[in-house]
Amino acid sequence: MLAALRASFLTFICLIAIFQTTRAQQPAQVQVDFGKKVGPMNPAWAWFGYDEPNYTYMKDGKKLLSEIAALSPVPVYVRAHCLLCTGDGTPALKWGSTNAYTEDSNGKPVYNWAIVDSIFDTYVQRGMKPLAQIGFMPEALSSNPQPYQHDWKPGDPYFKIITGWAYPPKDYQKWADLVYNWVRHSVERYGQKEVESWYWEVWNEPNGYWKGTMDEFFKLYDYSADAVKRALPTARIGGLNIAGTSGKTGTQWLEAFLKHCAEGTNYVTGKKGSPLDAVLFHAKGSPKLIDGIVRMNMSPQLRDIQTGFKSVLAYPQFKNLPLIVGESDPEGCAACGMATNPSNAYRNGTMYSSYTAATFARKYAMADQYGVNFLGAVSWSFEFENQPWFYGFRDLATNGVDKPVLNVFRMFGKMNGDRVETRSDRMYPLQMVLDSSIRGEKTEIGALASKAARTAAVMLWNYHDDDRQGPAEPVELQLTGIPAANITLTEYRIDNEHSNSYEVWKKMGSPQQPTTAQIAILEKAGQLKTLGTPKKLKVTGGKAKVSLALPRQAVSLVKLDW
């Protein structure tokens, strides 16, 4: 009797094990209906920025900008700091200069646009558009100029970067004349139609990068906006690129700025309000190192965006304005490598790729929810010239070699037309992600889909906040509303074996002085790769089914053409 009971118990345990194994292997169910439009697939991702403007026209900077321009079907907008800082153009981390404004011995302004032109020329020649930041304060105009250029390096306290360039002007009219002459020069050099397609914005993060009062900043904005509009009445001006949008001071600044632009007394005209053609604010996540593992946190980043949307909607006159997330990233310091900031170790591999896919899907979802004119989100990530290979900066390429994250943007570049209805039984609800990011027992297998006249695409990712690798999980992709009888299916993939220069570099032994042959291999590995070859697929009644396997942290783009 006891033996029989033991046998029955063992059988029961085995059945449970078999059931759990079978259950674990059940495919994630992703359903896409190409017949149901959700909203436009506007290229909100096609915006990039960086601290060091002088990298723009350097060797690797030009190469990367060419690649970014090539991956996008629309002009890419580019934002950079320090466009009016005083200096000879020698770059440093979190620093740049153009010497656009100096004064002669009599205090008369001297304008020199040579370096600024070399920056904007690089953009315009590639069909890109400046998101032209009016800042920072030239040394000759600063009300507290010394010390002027900072000597910050990774590991130093962040406040060390705040020096003479962050102070209000000693003469607001001279500042306005500088802005006016810059815009007029731009029109003369590039033509009115071209400059009308740009956006101008005043300063950056005044709740951190401004050593004046809030009222003094509003005065700076009014003088700047008035000067831009006098130089080109059809130019587009905005602000205020606040940091920590959902935090107490960030919210206070944003709401006070909106109120000033709506109904405050203009410091230049004395009339009510100030010109505002776009609203910009920042959004950052907050990764941490826990027991040697990086744990991402997208909740603060998404709450920043939510707060920005809601703040603008409080003013009916602004509800249709373009909203631009002026910096939108997993955390706050692009130039802080993983050697000094171990929590930034996510940046070289596929974690950065899958995080980017998962967060952009939520940006679109929130824009739909609030009904706002979400124009773009600037990924504050570029490249760092002449720095160690794969140092862990928040960048898109290292020494001219593309990192996996750049391939997510190549995928986005293949999505156009309209976003369509997408469901996944493994995708976390938006509110849950806003509350607690993606930290459940299971990873998220999420999706974003689009459809144009003769093409469609589904982006899929397998993401979790904990930076761990994991085996491939089965995914069943059920497609409906396909307006063709036969399609060509191509799957693009980012994982440890595809579109991943970092893994190839590690297999080489992580060389800091790779040979010419090794660099050629790394450059090839950094490009977006397909998983296998394109396949022909028969469609029945507008329906098709695709089965695939997606490793943890991987991103796939399933592209359909007919």
From TrEMBL:
SUPFAM superfamilies, per the entry: (Trans)glycosidases, Glycosyl hydrolase domain
Key words of the record: Glycosidase, Hydrolase, Signal
Gene3D superfamilies: Glycosidases, Glycosyl hydrolase domain, family 39
UniProt key word Ubl conjugation: no
Domain Glycosyl hydrolases family 39 N-terminal catalytic: 29-528
Tree of life domain: Bacteria
InterPro entries for this protein: GH (IPR017853), GH39_cat (IPR049166), Glyco_hydro_39 (IPR000514), Glycosyl_Hydrolase_39 (IPR051923)
Coiled-coil ranges (or none): none
Keyword Signal belongs to the record: yes
Membrane-spanning segments: none
Secretion signal, residue range per the UniProt entry: 1-24
Protein family membership: Belongs to the glycosyl hydrolase 39 family.
Protein name according to UniProt: Beta-xylosidase
